[in-house]
UniProtKB/TrEMBL annotation:
Source superkingdom: Bacteria
The STAS domain, residue ranges: 17-70
Protein name: Anti-sigma factor antagonist
InterPro entries listed in its UniProt record: STAS_dom, STAS_dom_sf
Organism from which the protein derives: Nonomuraea diastatica
């Protein structure tokens, strides 16, 4: 992530969550914190390979501009 700081065009930081079967409030708090810090630095956070339950919880909880990829 440090490589991206200072660049004019910053590629999204992708996190693959296919091995995450469940996300509770602690996990959501971590993802929200990462999203806010990334956005403050002009970096887009993209979550990929979400399981259906995790995807539904994140869609309800996180900001609308969070990218979720198949």
């Amino acid at each position: 992530m440090r490589r991206c700081i200072g660049r004019r065009h910053r590629p999204p930081v992708r996190r693959y969550l296919s091995r995450v079967p469940f996300c509770d409030s602690s996990g959501l708090a971590v993802l929200v914190g990462i999203q806010h810090r990334s956005r403050a630095q002009g970096i887009t956070l993209a979550l990929a390979n979400l399981r259906s339950h995790t995807s539904r919880v994140l869609c309800v909880t996180l900001d609308r501009d969070l990218q979720m990829m198949a």
